[in-house]
Specification:
Layout: H1 2-17, E1 21-24, H2 26-36, H3 38-59, E2 64-73, E3 79-83, E4 93-97, E5 102-115, H4 117-184, H5 190-225, E6 232-235, H6 257-277, E7 283-296, E8 307-319, H7 327-393, H8 399-434, H9 436-447
Parallel strand pairs: 1-6
Antiparallel strand pairs: 2-5, 3-4, 5-7, 7-8
Amino acid sequence: MKRIIYFLLIVPLLSQAQPASYQLSLEDAVLMAIENSPLLKKAGYEKEIAQAQARQAVGGYLPQVKASSQFTDNFALPEQQLPGEVFGQPGTTIPVKFGVRYGVSAGLEASQVIYNQQLIAGVKSAASLEALMHYGELSSKEELVYNVSQAYLQIQVTRQQRELVKSNLERVDRLYQNSKAQFDNGIIKENSVKQLAVNFQNTETQLLEVGYNLDQLTNLLKFHLSIDQSTELVLTSDLITDNKIILQDELSLESNIQYRQLLQQENLSLINEKYEKAAYVPSLNAFMNFGYTGQTNDFKFSGANYNSFNNGTWGLSVSIPVFDGFQRRNKLQIAQIETKQVLEDKKYLEHNINMNYQNAESRIRLSRKQASAQKANMVLAQDVYEATTESFQEGVSPLSELLDAENSLLEAQANYLTNLLQLKLAELDHLKASGQLAQIVENIDINNQ
């Protein structure tokens, strides 16, 4: 019975406590982020709203039909006093009720726009707005892909840093243990042992700091993926040594999503100008009305005492704008100024994209040289440190020389990792500025449709 209770109660709790785990390549991480992102879902809803608005605008050019029906009970008919002479009773007035008590009616109204310049501009505006929302969604995806790639990359560089610090800690620990033995044998002074103990504690603290930074970056990646913070992640792509994407050597301004988004905004602003200009143009509509009316004093809607008749009209109506207190003129001026603002925004964005592209190229060239030089410098510093360590243990080199060699090694490692991260981030910025990242995002969007 105890075993049964254990399996019924304890085992399910243990299974629930197991955190989820994902092995993710960069592509898997990007697809997961796109699928889970609340911001992208919101952008998708905005796109659906724009699509519905486009259909609504087109619906304004379709026939508009409305049907109606009504039943009335005139339980208190109005009276009017008539001269008695009408009824052969001169000198008197006789009250007479007009109308019938019960009535039914039904009608059908239809209208069709034949020509309305504003409605045409409205249809174009709605279609342009739909395209603008599409680019807005792509822009959000591009930003999300950039953030996921950046966090993924920073995690891998930080993991390299953690491995280096671990190696440093193991090396310092061995040296510290050896120094205690040397002190016991009277080879070195107690002060040297204490100094090595300080170095050990500092390196251990540095390892804790790197672990904290790694946890923060991992949590940031989980945030971009919109998954639970308790989820375990195993990153399988190697972004440090594996360069699958070849950077293009030219700027593709037309591929930049923000630039295309602004072009669409410019187009929408021009359409808005046409919409305001169309307010000066007459519009032409066709209309048709058909109705049925039935009347009776008895609650019977057939027979000799029931009267009914039909009525109907059709025609054309023209609306000609004449004067509205200069409201149309002012609206048009506002639309024209808004277009000028968009044009200035486009010039600013062009300069900004060019600047970001040139900066990314310069940073890549510099970081490549720096990373290469610092990698070689790190190897040399490692050799110097190992030789100095051996000399110190033999009692040839003083502790100060060993500490200088250790500081040089730590500085070389830090410089190498810093330049390596700057190089990879510059390559990511180059992908975004050149428009190459936008092309990748669009391909992802097409493949997921």
